[in-house]
Amino acid sequence: MSNVAPNSPEYDSTLHEQAPRSPNDLYTAQWVRGERTTRAGWCGYCCTWYRLKDSAYWYHMNYTHGISSSGTQYQAPISLRQFRSSSELEGLCPGCNQWILIGRGVRCRTGYYRHAYKCHGKHSKSSSEGNGTRFKSGSPKKANAKPLIPRNVL
Question: Does pTM top 0.90 for this prediction?
């Protein structure tokens, strides 16, 4: 990861360094520029800006680098194998023990990281805060209502 401050003359007045949330935090952007809806986070791995308002930074970190917003990297596959005698690879997921298509080329890990986001969160013992509620929905569960049947009342 690059420790050099990004050059950005048009954002010099709003460019500021941001401290990581913990010593092992791989997710938090070290540099942020802009204000309100134009805020962008600097990816130190790619040396590129990604908007924060529309979650472009979140998507980039999760699906390009395999780093969750909790600051940790997704678990790597336990094993790799060639898929159907082609140049594509499959990885054995440590969370569900299933073979997941990794792919090939520049974005070869995106499929695995998309799977890991869903799978590893479900199998984790607790959230980043340690209270175990990170992947639960905050909305109430819809009750299974029976249709009303009109009764003949005398």
Answer: no
